[in-house]
Amino acid sequence: MRSIARHRLAVAVAAMLAASTTTSTAFAQSLDDVAAQPAPTTDEEPTVLDTVSVLGSRTKPRTEASSAVPIDILDGEEFHRQPSVDVLDKMRTLVPSFNVSTIPIDDAATLVRPANLRGLPPDNTLVLVNGKRRHRAAVITFLGHGLSDGSQGPDISVFPSMALEQVEVLRDGAAAQYGSDAIAGVVNFSLRQRDQGGAVEAFAGEYYEGDGFTEQYSAQVGLPLTARGFATLTAEWRSADATSRSVQRDDAAAVAAAGYPGVADPVQVWGSPQTHEDMKFVANFGISGDSVDFYGFGNYAKRDVEGSFYYRNPTDRAGVFSNDGGQTLLVGDLDTGNGVGCPTIALRDADGNLLPYAGVAAAVAALPGECFTHLSQFTGGFTPRFGGRMEDQSLVLGLKGMWGEGWYWDISGSRGRNEVEFYMLDTVNASLGPDQPADNEFAPGANVQTETNFNFDLVRDLDVGFGTGVLSLAMGAEWREEEFEVIAGDPSSYAIGPLVEQGISLGSNGFNGFNPRVAGSHSRDNWALYIDAESQLTEQLLLAAAVRHEDFSDFGGTTNWKLTGRYDVSDAFALRGAVSTGFRAPTPGQANAEQVITEFADGHLLDSATLAPTNPIAAFYGAEPLQPEESSNASLGVVWNSGGWLTTLDAYRIDTEDRIALSAGFEVTDADRAALVAGGNPEAASISQVKFFVNDFDTTTTGVDLVSSYTSQHFGGDTTYSLAANWNRTEVDDFTPGIISEARVKKIEESLPRTKGYLGIEHQRQVFHASLRLHYYGSFYEDHLDSDVVLAADGGLPIHGDSAVTVDADIGWKFASGLYFSLGAQNLFDEMPDENPWSGVAGARYPVHTPYGFNGGFYYARVGYEF
């Protein structure tokens, strides 16, 4: 049935490409798009056709070699075979301009890792599934290490890789075709379609260090949906142990040396977080009628991830243990009305040395009953643990068919929802004194992102009197609503306890709960109209143009355009290029989200509040309502396709204005605090720093992508050599000092390696297959702990990481019975970055944002059965 389906589509697409008979993107999402149609009665051998992509043009799909813009088409089987279990890490392996880091201690970014295409933030890349827009995640990346600060992108890790037929990456601006967010490019996940058979698979792996054990189980089944339909169901379950690449902090070692009991070693863990559960389910289904087809797809996923936070030193943590830099212990008076005061307890001598714990403990034991200190409970300090339970679901339903003479239409509706419920363990709301919740657990609340989309698309070829006589035309309309909801936490997570007036901090320490004042829903809607035209003016020259207008309920309208061309100099060589404008609308979350977190800045931990631009406290420091980002994009490339070689080389330039990001932190002085509290903002009493989203800086991103492959019959089988490389540079052209810091500028410009690429060999001979891939990562810059200061002389923690080469290898066998298995290793030779020169500050043995990770080599085994 599957080969017959391929034959039907091959014939249909071949005829379409030869005679310019167009189809909409929904009609040709993959090579199995008509797998549910009844089998033809023919003895013809199946026709082999190149894989096609729906990206790059709204009028017709094209092969990678014939596209007028750069597109990577990743085969689903090869994609699934990559040694990583997370889709994000698989993308990083196969697409050089795609970067994602491990993110060990970064609040909500630990749950939904930010990914960067062409050096731009996660929300500058549009994600589609089967050609339909994917909803965003509820996580806003408050800590994104400069480049991704404040971004709110989709979570693509919710898809099991077994569910994918192919992954298409359009590396070109496409806002005029697809709308907001498509500044860096577009990623489309095409889901598999099968009406029979299936597969089951088990995967297990572990790091060379002996930690991070990962197990994953996947299953897929294809079912007939009536006589002319299909339903493909894919499920995956995964768990992963945490890793630790940590050393003992210098301050923790000093505390232990002074005799303080209960100091763990290491006291703070840097590594991949623990995944308690990661469950994913995807359904793809459709029924083909005589004139109208029905289709649908959706997903459900849930994930529970838990990681470490910063250590709270019992001798100097502000707001909990000491408010004078560690000279004296912070002691709260639980009864200020009886005239009895609490004595002062010294923590250090006149030279700043820690006093022995025995003397401090004796003084604490002698305190009057109404005097309270958290040192009584946490003699060695404490390290909060932060986690989140994510739930993601979506459903897309649509109809498509032909209207009149050659008008193909597609109407669809979708709804997606992503919720992240946060939790804190092993921490306190210090202002509550001894009245802490059971087991020191807090529920700070949740964020929810919900999106609803309706689309109507028309595609037709028109007979015209110029060129080859055919103009391919696509047009459509879209309506979308986005809603961002903040759900309040449990009262103890945001409570203003009785000790707050004595300088003791409020809220669950490390991640304050959302209070009822900031809780609520914020939404906006928009509508859009687009038209996309394409014509093969001569046998050699292809030209295309697109224009799109969108109108948003919160800031008005924007119109964007794109011009694309390709000139085939010969059968083997072609020139191609594009120019376009683009935009990205600020999300309701960025315009309204608020959160108080603990971060490392200027050499110490402090409570930093990220506030909505409309918040009175943010306005006090100059915040204004957000406006959309605007961009212009230009690319120029060449294509060589001859003798088994396919090579593309594309240069690009992306100019972005009014980029949206988090501002620098504004210190809340005592005078500011008094004025704000007097003005009706009591929460100002417990925060040390204020940030807000702002349109402030402009950037220029330039780069070159090289992709080349060669197919051969070397070594007695089918052997493919592939080379892919990216050179990318981002420069900040304009910014406002004080709003965007120079340290932030340096992170934007230098945190990612400017050069990244790989050389791979894939070999298939009968039942045996093998792959070898060498990855190159250029040098990088890390502002360790986001100290927000550029030079070490000024107190910063700069790290200049060297370039590196890592090697992935995989061998396996796939038998006619359907049984298959493979063995392999990621980072085969255990390449590690140079050790962190500032490791004693917070205990990270290696730079935590090394582009190839810091966990080292990972070996694995995979076994499965297809039926």
UniProtKB/TrEMBL annotation:
Motif (TonB box): 51-57
Signal peptide stretch: 1-28
Domain TonB-dependent receptor plug: 66-186
InterPro entries linked to this entry: Beta-barrel_TonB, Beta-barrel_TonB_sf, Plug_dom, Plug_dom_sf, TonB-dep_rcpt-like, TonB_box_CS
Subcellular location: Cell outer membrane
Membrane topology listed for this record: Multi-pass membrane protein
Pfam families: Plug (PF07715), TonB_dep_Rec_b-barrel (PF00593)
Domain TonB-dependent receptor-like beta-barrel residues, every copy: 385-828
Domain of life: Bacteria
Keywords: Cell outer membrane, Membrane, Receptor, Signal, TonB box, Transmembrane, Transmembrane beta strand, Transport
UniProt main location, coarse: membrane
PROSITE patterns: TONB_DEPENDENT_REC_1, TONB_DEPENDENT_REC_3
Family: Belongs to the TonB-dependent receptor family.
Protein name: TonB-dependent receptor
Classification lineage: Bacteria, Pseudomonadati, Pseudomonadota, Gammaproteobacteria, Lysobacterales
